Structures are given as C-alpha cells and as structure tokens.
What does this fold into?
Amino acid sequence: MPIDVESNLLIVDDLPENLLALEALIRGPGRAVYRATSAEEALALLLDHEFALAILDVQMPGMNGFELAELMRGTERTRHIPIIFVTAAGRDSNYAFQGYESGAVDFLYKPLDPHAVTSKVNVFVDLHCHRKALRHEMDALAVANRKQEELVQQLRHTQRELERAVRMRDDFMSMVSHELRTPLNTLYLETQLRQVHVSKGNLESFAADRLPAMIERDQRQIRNMVRLIDDMLDVTRMRRDALSIQPKPVDLAALARAVVEGLKQQAEAAGSAIALEAPRELPGVWDEFRIEQVLTNLLTNALRYGGGKPVEMVLRDLGGTAHITVRDQGIGIAPEDQERIFEQFERTDDSRKHAPGLGLGLYITRKIVCLHDGRIEVESRPGEGSLFHVELPLQAATKTATQVRT
Ligand SMILES: Nc1ncnc2c1ncn2[C@@H]1O[C@H](COP(=O)(O)OP(=O)(O)OP(=O)(O)O)[C@@H](O)[C@H]1O
Ligand SMILES: [Mg+2]
It folds into this structure.
C-alpha cells in the first residue's frame, strides 16, 4: 500500500520553547508541523487544515488541553483527529478523557522522553497514512466499479442491438422467401397446367385468342418478382448511402397519367377505381424513374389497403412546389403507427391481415422524396382511410443519399 501521503501535525503549547523542542522531535520527511500557542489559535488551524494528529498541552492559560479536546469532539471536521495530551507526570494522569469518538487518545508525560514521543507520533502518523491510502484505494475501486458497470450496460445494449439485427435479418429472409414464393408458385402451377395440356394434346389452350392473357399473367408474376428484388436492391443502396437521383425535365402530370394507366389491371383486381385530378401539364426537374416509384408505391398501397373503395390522386402546382395527394377510404392507420410505417420492414398489424408486403415501399418513397428536397406526410384514422401528401420542389438538384438524412 503506498503511504507517501503528506501528514499535518498540530502541536499546541503556550510556551514557544516547548513548541520548538517538540517540533524538533517530531518533524520529518512527509510531515508538516503546525504550531499554536493557544487553544483559539489551534482551533483556527484545525478549521483550515486536515491533521493526522494533534499534540495538546493540558495546562494552558485560558482554554486548557482537555477543553480544546472537548470542542474538537463536538465538531464533525475534527472529531476523528487522534490526540496526544502532554501533561506533567503524576498530575492529571488519572484524568480519563471520556467519549472521544476515534478512541485515539494517548498521553505523554513531562519531562518528555524523546523516544516515547517519536514512537507514539510514528504510530499515529503511520495509522493516518494507512487510512488515507485505504480511502484512496476505496475511491479508486468505486470509480473502477462504476466504469465496469457502465461497460456492462454498454455490452448489454450492444448485445440487444445485435439480437435485434439478427432477428431482423431472419424476419427479412423469411418475408422475402414468402413474398417471392407467391409469384413463383403461380408461375410453377401455370407451367404444370400447360404441361398437362401438351401431354394430352389439348392444344386449343394455346390458341391465338388465349395467348395474350396467358403472357400477361406470366408477365405480372415476373414483374412482381422484379419489383421485390428492385426494392431490396434499393434498400441495400440506401443503407450504404449509395442511392442517387438524376433530375431531368419531366412532366409530372403525364407521368401520373401513365402510372395510373399502368395500374389499371391492379385496380380492377382490387375492386377500386383510381381517379386522377391533375393540370394538363406540371413540368419540373426530377428523377423520372424515382418519382414514378413514389407514385406507384402510394397508389399500390391505396389499392392494397383501400378496402376496394375508390382511390383518388390529386396533383397541384403550388408555384415552386408540386403537391401530390393520394387518398383512399380503406383500413386507415392508427396515430401511433403513422411515423414508423416510413421505416424499413414496418407494417401495421391490421395491414398484415389484408395484404402481403415487405414494408419497404414507404421507406423507399420517403428517401426518394427527401433526395428531391421534398416532404411526405400522412393523415389518417383507423377505419376512415388515409391521405398521403407529398411536396416536391419543382427543381431538384442532383444528389446522393449521403447528402440526405431522413
Ligand atoms: N394507404 C394505406 N392505408 C393503410 N395502411 C397503409 C397505407 N399505406 C401504408 N400503410 C401501412 O404502412 C405499412 C408500410 O407500407 P409500405 O408501403 O412501406 O410496405 P408494404 O405495402 O407493407 O410492402 P411493400 O414493401 O410491398 O410496399 C403497410 O404495411 C401498412 O401497414
Ligand atoms: Mg407498399
């Protein structure tokens, strides 16, 4: 245990020559000796410094050594300082100073025996140094414990994050497999059916009037799979901040009309009609392919979760900004879900019952809108449909996702 601690010693005696003699006996390396010629002077020093030991002359004019010790006992700061009383041999020796908290009280008798003085003082100083070193080590231990506790908390946090990441990856794998299986199964069943027709020579199933519908069915399943894979690739790019936009002059109104036309069959299958209200032209500078994704994602959601009721898309030129709204009258979204649905793989419990999906569409949509310096918001109430607003500045600047934080 390191005991290179500085120890302050207080000596109190009304006779300066006694003080000098005592100091000569007790001083040494690592010790600072403070002298007081009265109890009052001693009290002032006691309040200013931390002492390892006080050596008090019992007989002093005014307040004597015992009275000073009583005062020290009554003060928190000085209560634990060990005391050696210096008293005339034989006299006062039966006075037992009672109740001093530390119990560290000793006596030296006049005339002073130098050996007795040094050995008693050494004992108290050593004790003081050991106590101080111990306190120091305990403080260090408490700090180390606190740090260790912090580290354990950090590790627990990291572990939870890792577990969450693993769970997300597993969920993702099973969702992707499930989503890809649906169009693949349909295609597989179609090919099996055709094989049966061929083996039975039933070639009228492949007659010219049936072929276009057959091809369209196949293409739809293939498009579904391509869209899923594209979405996953987009998300991977976004995670690496590698998605960029290439803005060029586009007519948003014409683009919207083409998207609505492209979703006609899907709308029919959902039992909904899409009504589009748009100016004749809405020119701006955007990444056409990415904005098409935004419109498609919002309309696909409106068809999926729109409960077979009409869907409406409105485009407006607000002067400097294009405003797009997509409204449906379907299942709606609870207030507590309205922020998280824009995060990857987040879906509402209600929507899971209605339609399959990966929960990527709105995540991708918001990223694209932000890359165009735009905003997307939703207004909705459960059971009362949803209204998505998108605002796009008419002029988007070329950008990569690194420059955008959503
Ligand atoms: N119009 C809407 N009405 C009700 N809920 C909606 C609507 N649009 C989105 N949601 C909710 O937000 C979730 C996230 O939508 P998002 O488009 O990101 O994913 P998804 O449609 O489930 O799957 P996909 O990745 O194929 O788009 C949906 O699963 C659904 O719970
Ligand atoms: Mg979607």
The chain is about 50% helix and 20% strand. The radius of gyration is 44 Å. The domain at 165-239 is CATH 1.10.287 (Helix Hairpins).
